[in-house]
């Protein structure tokens, strides 16, 4: 550990807290309201500054870093920076990730002197950014005096860590270097809240009662399971084994239950489920939902909403038909329940009758035109226990969900927020924290165009990320939901772009594949390029999309098109 500064400033205090909660990299875009703060953060030897190309990418890189590290920080300037960074902050909120958004702000004297300032709306009220941040974070604080900084910084960070949501800290340009007290023990910020013993006991009893007399229990896992931390994922495997029942997983929770486990029955995604997950979920007479999120997307336009009474366990509470228990930590609850359940493998026996036979995967000849199926076949062969697979909004969601994850492989998807372009900066942020992983991104042409600049940071940090860019010449998912000329985009020379990002010293490689053999050769180049990203543009026909996308698109479009309900109707 480095020696602590004897005199603390607000900036030092924040830096110390960020380092103490396990942040090793902070993502920044400089601006005159945050420059002194950036100096202070830079001075902390346990933090590495990571510059981003713009604040949207900066916030999404921090979102990806939070997936790998559990918490992240994004530092931007007032308004012009923060309003762009709000997008990644919204993602962190929807995806349950504690991202600490830090914004520089005007000198504390300016508001009372009614000065008009740059990077503002041109009025003398500067409170709007804090008010906007309040809507998209679990705690938003603005420091107006240095002596309040320790209390406000600690409060915001603790709230974010406990709620698994983003927080916002605003620091005026003339306060980052102002003196404040030194930090107290970090446990005051990081110590978890434990379950209320009585509530925990009562919830476990209620669960046993919910299951009693039920013949066909099924466990359904959602994306909030991993976000809960708390050993919840491991506890769930033990509970599943004690129950012996079928375990289905929502698409955004793919990988949160081992896919090679004999009780894994597939991804439950309504009519576009894998295996026979939808049949077994709909056959169940008791559904133990853990961390589930039911949205129009995850229920395929509300067509797959389970219609039996549910048990729903969330990070810090459990709800049953007719009962609710607060302050029950999900990990503790699942462990407690494991000691009470009886073994009943009825749903596994039935699943083994229902499950489809393995399909024969066709391997294309080297000269065959590249297809979506062949791309998937080749990506499947790349996956191993070290892989982190990012799947972008678009057909990549459906193609990615179909892949079989080897044990240990990580799967990242941003299904709740669904921001096209997320995968490039998020994979960059993730790979910085986990350089040992083999990060692969499946991204469409339209999405890539939104945040392409962040590939240049992958080059700068020599990260060997493989980008499989599926070029189907437009916004195909939108074509399937509702087509129009707006779904066509300008084509780029994606492979050549890598040379532009290299500048004079980069190691990125850009390749394009139009045949199966070209893709195979490009994949080999990617695996040998350990010093920078490799982008492989895979050209396919614009109508070559998955069956699942077309089906899902149909039902989501129908849900979008419901006519307005009149009062009383
Ligand atoms: C939009 C989407 O090329 O993928 O496989 O061709 O669909 P596919 P692409 O990356 O195109 C993505 C496109 C335009 N969604 O089909 S999913 C609307 C949208 C969004 N996020 C933002 N703007 C618009 N999801 C930031
Ligand atoms: Mg496309």
From TrEMBL:
Q: Which cofactor does it need?
A: thiamine diphosphate; Mg(2+); a metal cation
A Pfam family of this chain: TPP_enzyme_N
**Catalysed reaction, written as an equation:** a 2-oxocarboxylate + H(+) = an aldehyde + CO2
Which stretches make up the Thiamine pyrophosphate enzyme TPP-binding domain? 410-538
Its Enzyme Commission number? 4.1.1.1
Tell me which InterPro entries the record gives.
DHS-like_NAD/FAD-binding_dom, PDC/IPDC-like, THDP-binding, Thiamin_PyroP_enz_cen_dom, Thiamin_PyroP_enz_TPP-bd_dom, TPP-bd_CS, TPP_enzyme_TPP-bd, TPP_PDC_IPDC
Q: Which Gene3D superfamilies match?
A: 3.40.50.970, TPP-binding domain (3.40.50.1220)
Residues reported to bind Mg(2+): 445, 472, 474
Any one GO BP annotation for this protein? aromatic amino acid family catabolic process to alcohol via Ehrlich pathway
| An annotated Gene Ontology molecular function | pyruvate decarboxylase activity
Q: Which UniProt keywords apply?
A: Decarboxylase, Lyase, Magnesium, Metal-binding, Thiamine pyrophosphate
The residues covered by the Thiamine pyrophosphate enzyme central domain are 206-304
Cofactor: how bound? Binds 1 Mg(2+) per subunit.
Occurrences of domain Thiamine pyrophosphate enzyme N-terminal TPP-binding (ranges):
9-118
Q: Does the keyword Phosphoprotein apply?
A: no
Question: Which family is annotated?
Answer: Belongs to the TPP enzyme family.
Please state what the protein is called.
Pyruvate decarboxylase
